[in-house]
């Protein structure tokens, strides 16, 4: 069970963790200088995937909620940004777009979550309903004109950071989106860590492990599930917003396939570790980048088999493996 | 109990990745100037895969021919093909990769209209030359695009003329619900009064529709004499199968424009025998260039191989690009564009192609073909070349 | 009037196919609470089985007979190797079968090629029915799926194994206590479910394009059928298929087909919320 991975080895000092995190962050900042624009664009894309995966892990690894519709919220964030920028081409639109990239998924999550959690829909049934949600959103995005249909959304001005009248930084090209992504990912990762290490985080895990007992202790299960669900989906929406300058807004990012990608990334990276989402997304994406052309279809088969093995043998993914290797005195 | 989510090890992994990746990619990034890269975003899998193979063969043949006669500007031309899975996002990713990472001199794009639109955005931003071909709905006029694309008047009107003359005046238009389907039928509608035909019905279906029975029923009820289907990719075969399953062969004529030997195997011999279609090229086009072309094609890919109008156009376009590069003396985008605009006629397997510098489209040749029981297509009428008449609009998505 | 008749017949075609696939899903789900996300791939394999058998054996008919046998066998292997270990953990089965569906899909893409394949109807021609001319093959399809449905129903109602299966669905523990070999029951149910999906694929093969992805859409719809119609119930599968399949068909003739699809999905979400065990759970 994931909680065995979370009872950390307290021999690790907070200072070391801070130092290493700082080192990683610095490395990410320097990366474009070493690798160039195209690679930075690629890493930015993979970091967005990592953020998406991390938000999925928040829900699945910590709250035990399997959300096959997670991509719908990613897509909502992306489409919100695109639609706002397209239809409000005046100063301040970017701010509105950024806000809506969080608010729109948040609102949907609240409504959808309220409808389901307070209806006591959980476990496998929640997974099924969320699947239907993903399909429905994707179908609507294809069907409706204002979302651009199958073509997707294009022809809107870029997201622009700045204060009207003083400076403006359009998020175009490869470098600006990259740095924006790195900063936002770091912030949301820190926020997520804070959440799971708080008492709220422990309550969520209690609900995951034994909902009946937790409820009998007086906790409002539905409310807590709704809260973490909303937080997770909002983060997915923000990831979607980050995706806009990097990729293309199209119905594909709303669909089931993208949600299952997050599932694969988290499983491989390590469920219930938050960082595992990033690790999984980066490792799988880079492996695909290097081996994809050579392996082609075989690549997906390898991923599929790996996935089945992880499920069958309850592996903790990459992070779980690493944790066990460095554990001292705690039996497996 | 204190909870710690450790960052040390993942940090090391990220660190390693961050510094390994550039090493690996840099290793392949140097020493490139001995060759010229020609990018190719193709549809080899997914919805549009029915055409991708022929486009590949045509482009490959052109590149091999160029290299066999000494390459371009003394350098070898290397074809870098990528598969877009007929998905917009992937197609854009691959185009970016070809431009930024592979430093392609130009990129051949064989994609659906909705994807081409988005790719043109990138081409404009990166000042990159895109080469296309086949056919389109007449709405792609762009500085960075040169394509041996048949315009609606070159690939739609000929078969419409034939149908109105021979089969009756009531036409039913059915298409896929996106830019190409709607745009093509829009252009077709404009032509109806010119041939004295009337619209018996008009219908659009989303890509990926699996049940065409309702569509066929509507056609039956409309009393139409002939139909003009603009149904994309694999949907086209499914629609026709349903159409014939309902016993409409011989009762309502199908004016095909995209039927080729790739589609034949889906239909039993008695059904496909006698189907009429119009295109800018068939394997059986009776020109000397085509004979030589087919010999080389079969020598390279097998003696039973055929070629479609989608593929042949790409062969022509790549050859014309190579000529322009030689004229310009460089692979830089602007000089090559100028050279392409000023280029004289090119003799391809379909016949003569001449550029229209204002639209970057070409004078192309139209043929009427008949499908035989064995699945092959014979040319029954050569209609000669016609000027391209694009239906220019700034937004290619035409909404009714 | 003619339009209505055709709409009904079209709806019936889709309904029957969906109910076959859904039945397979439903009994497995009803028995062990296990959802096989690779069920759509079994459908796809059944269709491809016809293409392959067409090359060596009499066209279509051999494939139609072989498909359920072959796919049933595949189902058995999957049950023994993977599903068996995960019965107690439904979410894990979901994941493992997801991985399996990817493996099967990509495996077919690699070996069979990514392009579309087609088979042909074994007989053409129309029949005049209810005032309309309707393709004979589609009528045959409706008839044969109905027959298959009845056959399976007979099996469940009147044979020894069928009774054992129904007992196990009703109460697994007591069934085991009564001496029923529940492990064998599990295997039989999985085999039957998979065979049904394969058979459905074979029947559909002449009228839809065959591609590695073809099972995905049908699976999604069948899944909705099981949810809406009820888990582990025959009448539920049929009724659900009628609602989903028929509903979409009929809706599609009045509003845009794609909007009809979205609407049906919304309906399913609402149904799960208020009746998680389906509308017709007995």
Task: Explain what the structure shows.
The complex is a heterotrimer of chains A (332), B (400) and C (282). By secondary structure, chain A is mostly helical. Chain A has a domain at 28-256. Chain A is built from 14 helices and two strands. Chain A has helices spanning 3-6, 14-35, 37-62, 70-87, 93-117, 123-143, 175-196, 199-209, 211-216, 221-243, 256-269, 275-295, 297-312, 317-325; strands at residues 160-163, 167-170. Chain A has a two-stranded antiparallel ribbon with strand order 1-2. In chain A, a hairpin with a 3-residue loop joins strand 1 (160-163) and strand 2 (167-170). In chain A, helix 3 packs antiparallel against helix 10 (221-243). Chain B is α/β, with parallel strands linked by helices and 400 residues long. In chain B, 41% of the residues lie in helices and 23% in strands. Chain B has helices spanning 8-27, 49-68, 88-101, 113-126, 152-155, 157-166, 179-191, 213-222, 233-245, 269-272, 288-301, 309-328, 333-341; strands at 35-42, 76-83, 106-109, 129-135, 145-150, 170-176, 198-205, 226-230, 253-256, 276-279, 346-348, 351-356, 361-371, 377-386. In chain B, a hairpin with a 2-residue loop joins strand 11 (346-348) and strand 12 (351-356). The longest helix of chain B has 20 residues, at 8-27. Chain C has 282 residues and is mainly alpha-helical. Chain C has one domain (2-213). In chain C, 75% of the residues lie in helices and 3% in strands. Chain C contains eleven helices and two strands; from the N terminus they run H-H-H-H-E-E-H-H-H-H-H-H-H. In chain C, strands 1-2 form a two-stranded antiparallel ribbon. In chain C, strand 1 and strand 2 form a beta hairpin. In chain C, helix 5 (136-158) packs across helix 6. The mean pLDDT of chain C is 85. The chains are: A mainly alpha (332), B alpha/beta (400), C mainly alpha (282). Chains A and B meet through helix 2, helix 3, helix 12 and helix 14 of A and helix 1, helix 3 and helix 4 of B.
Task: List the defining traits of the structure above.
heterotrimer, A: 332 residues, mainly alpha, two-stranded antiparallel sheet, 2% strand, globular, disordered N terminus, disordered C terminus, C: 282 residues, two-stranded antiparallel ribbon, 11 helices, 2 strands
